[in-house]
Amino acid sequence: MTEQETIFKEIVDNSQDVATKSQQISNLTKQQELASNQIFTTLKEISLGIRNFVTSTVTTSKIAEDLSEMSSGSRRRLKGSRPRRTKTDDGRGTDQAGRTQR
Q: Distance (Å, rounded) from C-alpha 10 to C-alpha 14?
């Protein structure tokens, strides 16, 4: 083999090596793009989950507030409707209707 043929063979071999490496880089770039898209999608889903959690927490808090207000109102109404006891001379109590309480 002449020197020119040897140089030409090296050029061809190097060109094939460059083509192979370029294809590998292209494949890896596509994989990286796919992985980046998956990460982006996952982050969007996490963000949506956090928004839903916040909405649920606000709703739960509002319901708890409403229940607390209802409970307070019920206690006030019950307190206002309870018969009041008064003491008799013998120390026993009577209700508003005058019935003796023990």
A: 6
